[in-house]
Amino acid sequence: MRPDETAFVRFAGVEKSYDGRTLVVRRLDLDIARGEFLTLLGPSGSGKTTCLMMLAGFEPLTRGEIYLEGRPLSRVPPHRRDIGMVFQNYALFPHMTVAENLAFPLQVRRLGRSEIEARVRRALEMVRLSGFEHRRPAQLSGGQQQRVALARALVFEPRLVLMDEPLGALDKQLRENMQYELKRLHERLGITVVYVTHDQGEALTMSDRVAVFDSGRIRQLATPRRLYEEPENAFVARFIGETNALEGRVRRREGRFCRVELEGGFEVTALAVAAGMPGEPTTLSLRPERVWLEPAPGEVENAFEAEVVELVYHGDHLRLVLAVCGRRDFVVKVPNRPGVHVPGPGERLVVGWRAEDCRALDAG
Hints:
The chain is an alpha+beta fold. It has helices spanning about 50-55, 100-110, 115-125, 140-155, 170-190, 200-205, 225-230, 235-240; strands at about 10-15, 25-30, 35-40, 65-70, 70, 85, 160-165, 190-195, 210-215, 215-220, 245-255, 255-260, 265-270, 280-285, 290-295, 300-315, 315-325, 325-335, 350-355, 360. Helix content is about 25%, strand content about 35%.
């Protein structure tokens, strides 16, 4: 957001402790723009779901304040926050039909019968479930139940929708289809979404921005592309996608770059993103798809002899595990297309990478 814009949602110095000693959320400052799809991503216990529950009003804050359109929320009960919620377990009423499930939040808000019927009809059209009004949840597939849960969260036209691992119970193919459906729905309606997941692929696919949580704090907040291409620390580099993490020590700085010595005396030229001074430890992050097989002389700054330890078929790509630079777990991804020679186990070759594709980060 630009500094002159007013945040739609603002976490200001928010902290949370359940026992009065250990902070599960630490001094969180976070602004969310109107209409944004923001994902809170991180491992279990990192604090992301706690943040969502505090925003929904289901957990009290230990310290700080959360604002919605400039209004402090700490004294506003959950049912008056005008926030829609979608959970992993759908939370549909099993004894009610689809239409009755959608009508319930409207009846609580005391809308008239004709208005309720119109909104239910529009919500079902929105999630492509027209004609399912009289079915009960048990008569629906998992994907259909999740769409009903989404429609129920949207039917009363909330200012904000919170989603807590909403696709976690679905199988892989249905989960991926629902990711695209949710993103298209968000773009069409322009609603503000705060989404919690531990699935990095889900976060990269759907989000405008992603906040990566670790031990109750945000380690990096950025667009999906920037998180993957430009991680700012070793935790984010390891958590987002797959990376080769090479431990070493800075030998010398060379402008934007540095020379790093790995165990065994191997030296690598890398982009000095968060590397310390000469002699200090650093972690090099190199994505498997950024490694070149048999580069021409002078084509890359780093080139080493390697041996193929393992070859794994993944359909759209092949995954090579190499012995290189004193390691036997170095990964390279090669596109599966005609004309690309892929060496087999036991074969020797030269691999290399550009200095700008190898990021020298903190010691991790």
